[in-house]
C-alpha cells in the first residue's frame, strides 16, 4: 500500500511552546509544536514564522528544509499549508488567528487562551465559521492519557460530591494593567484549570456551550434614566453553561490592589460543590483537581494521578476508608502533545472529531471573564 501523503504544516510563533520547550530535558517530550509535528510521520513542516529574527534563526538551524518568514502574510503568499499553528503571544492571537483562517488551511491549531478577551475570541470564531475553517485550541489536558484515565474513572466513584481545582504560582492572579498583554495567571494558566474542570463536567466529551445574559441594571429614578433604558439595548455578556454565577471568597489583594488569591464557588446539577481557587502568592507551581464521589476520589495534578475507592477500613472496624485502587493501570506517559497532533491528523483523515475546539476554549474564557467582572464589584 502506498504511504499516505503527509499533511503540510506551518508554525507562526517560534518561542517556547512553538519551539524551545521541545529542548527541555526535564519535560515529557514532545513538548513543543515543532517537536510534536516533526515526530508525527503524517506531517511535514514546510515553513516557520517569527517576528523575532533571533528566534527564527535558531529554529531554522534545527529545521533546515523549512522556509522561514518574519511576517505571516509573506508565508501565506507563498505557501498553502494544510495545518497552521498559531503559537504567538496572547496580544497577537486575534490578528494571527484571523490571518491564518483567511488563508484557508484545512485546520488551524491555536494556542490557549483563545484570545485576550471574549470579544476577540468571538471575532476569531465568527471568521472561522464564515471561512469554514476548523480551529483546534491547545488545551492540552483534553488529550492527555492521565486526564482521559481520570475521566473514565468518574463512573467508579459514585455521584460527585465536590470538585476542587487549585492553581498555585507566583504570578499575579489579576492585574487590570495587563489586560492588553494577558500576563496574569487567571488568563495564562487559569484557562487550563477551568478547561480541566469543564472537561470533567462534560458528558461523554460533549463540549458544552455558552448562554447570553443581559446586565442587570440598577433602577435609578428620573426621566433621563427612563428615556435611556427605552432607547438603549441592554448590553449582554456570555456565561458558561456549566460554570456560572459563582460566589467569590478568599480574595486577597496586594499592596498595589492587584488580585493575588481567590476562590470561586459554583453549584450545578452535576455537582453541588465546585471550587476553583488560584493563588499568585506561592513559591511553587502546582496544578491540581480533586474530585470526591460518594464511593471514591480522583486526585490529578501535574505529574501525578491518584485513584481511590472505598474499601473495608484497616483502621476502624465496621467502617469503610479510601484506599488506592490498584486495579487500574496508570499511564506511564501523558502523551499530551503527541495526542493533540494525532487528534489533528485523525480529524483531517475524517476519523475523529476535534477534542478541544474554539467553543470549548470560549467556554473557559467565559468563566474567567465572569470572575474578573466580580473582582470589579468587590
Ligand atoms: N499549551 C500550553 O501549555 C502553553 C505553554 C506555554 C505557552 N502557551 C501559549 O502559547 C503562546 C506563546 O507563548 P510562549 O510561552 O511560547 O511565548 P514566547 O514569547 O516564548 O513565544 C512567542 C513567540 O511569538 C513571536 N511572535 C509574537 N507576535 C508574532 C507575530 N505577529 N508573528 C510572528 N511571530 C510572533 C515572538 O517573537 C515569540 O518568539 C501564548 O498564547 C501562551 O499562553 C501555551
Uncertain ranges: none
CATH topology of the largest domain: Dihydrodipicolinate Reductase, domain 2
Mean pLDDT value:
95
Terminus-to-terminus distance: 65 Å
In helices, the fraction of residues equals: 25-40%
InterPro entries: Gfo/Idh/MocA-like_OxRdtase_N, Gfo/Idh/MocA_Oxidoreductases, NAD(P)-bd_dom_sf
GO molecular function, one term: nucleotide binding
Pfam family, one: GFO_IDH_MocA
Organism: Treponema peruense
Q: What does this molecule look like?
A:
With 378 residues, the protein is α/β, with parallel strands linked by helices. It folds into 2 domains: 132 residues, Rossmann fold; 208 residues, Dihydrodipicolinate Reductase, domain 2, CATH 3.30.360. The chain is built from 11 helices and 16 strands. The strands form 3 sheets. Strands 10-11-12-7-13-14-15-16 form an 8-stranded mixed sheet. A 6-stranded parallel sheet has the order 3-2-1-4-5-6, sandwiched between helices. It has a two-stranded antiparallel sheet with strand order 8-9. Strand 5, helix 5 and strand 6 form a beta-alpha-beta unit. Helix 4 runs parallel beside helix 5. The longest helix has 20 residues. Nicotinamide-adenine-dinucleotide binds next to loops. This is Gfo/Idh/MocA family oxidoreductase. GO terms for molecular function: nucleotide binding.
Amino acid at each position: 500500500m502506498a504511504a499516505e501523503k503527509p499533511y503540510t504544516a506551518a508554525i507562526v510563533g517560534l518561542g517556547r511552546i512553538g519551539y524551545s520547550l521541545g529542548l527541555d530535558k526535564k519535560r515529557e517530550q514532545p513538548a513543543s509544536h515543532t517537536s510534536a509535528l516533526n515526530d508525527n510521520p503524517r506531517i511535514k513542516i514546510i515553513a516557520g514564522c517569527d517576528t523575532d529574527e533571533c528566534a527564527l534563526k535558531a529554529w531554522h538551524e534545527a529545521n533546515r528544509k523549512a522556509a522561514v518568514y518574519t511576517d505571516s502574510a509573506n508565508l501565506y503568499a507563498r505557501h498553502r499549508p494544510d495545518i497552521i499553528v498559531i503559537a504567538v503571544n496572547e496580544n497577537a492571537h486575534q490578528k494571527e488567528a484571523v490571518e491564518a483562517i483567511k488563508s484557508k488551511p484545512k485546520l488551524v491549531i491555536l494556542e490557549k487562551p483563545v484570545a485576550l478577551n471574549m470579544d476577540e475570541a468571538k471575532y476569531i470564531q465568527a471568521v472561522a465559521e464564515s471561512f469554514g475553517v476548523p480551529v483546534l485550541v491547545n488545551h492540552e489536558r483534553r488529550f492527555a492519557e492521565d486526564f482521559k484515565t481520570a475521566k473514565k474513572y468518574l463512573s467508579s466513584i459514585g455521584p460527585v460530591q465536590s470538585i476542587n481545582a487549585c492553581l498555585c504560582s507566583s504570578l499575579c492572579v489579576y492585574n487590570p494593567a495587563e489586560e492588553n498583554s494577558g500576563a496574569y495567571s487567571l488568563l495564562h494558566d487559569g484557562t487550563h484549570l477551568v478547561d480541566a474542570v469543564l472537561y470533567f463536567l462534560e458528558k461523554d466529551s460533549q463540549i458544552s456551550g455558552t448562554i447570553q445574559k443581559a446586565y442587570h441594571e440598577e433602577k435609578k429614578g428620573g426621566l433621563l434614566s427612563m428615556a435611556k433604558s427605552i432607547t438603549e439595548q441592554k448590553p449582554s455578556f456570555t456565561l458558561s453553561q456549566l460554570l456560572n454565577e459563582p460566589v467569590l471568597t478568599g480574595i486577597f489583594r496586594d499592596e498595589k490592589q492587584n488580585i493575588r488569591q481567590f476562590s470561586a464557588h459554583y453549584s450545578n446539577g452535576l455537582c453541588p460543590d465546585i471550587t476553583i481557587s488560584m493563588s499568585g502568592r506561592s513559591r511553587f507551581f502546582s496544578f491540581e483537581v480533586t474530585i470526591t464521589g460518594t464511593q471514591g476520589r480522583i486526585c490529578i495534578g501535574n505529574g501525578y494521578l491518584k485513584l481511590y475507592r472505598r474499601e473495608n477500613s484497616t483502621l476502624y472496624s465496621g467502617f469503610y476508608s479510601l484506599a488506592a485502587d490498584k486495579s487500574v493501570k496508570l499511564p506511564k506517559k501523558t502523551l499530551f502533545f503527541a495526542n493533540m497532533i494525532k487528534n489533528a491528523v485523525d480529524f483531517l483523515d475524517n476519523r475523529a472529531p476535534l477534542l478541544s475546539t474554539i467553543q470549548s476554549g470560549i467556554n473557559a474564557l467565559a468563566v474567567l471573564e465572569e470572575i474578573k467582572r466580580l473582582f470589579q464589584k468587590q
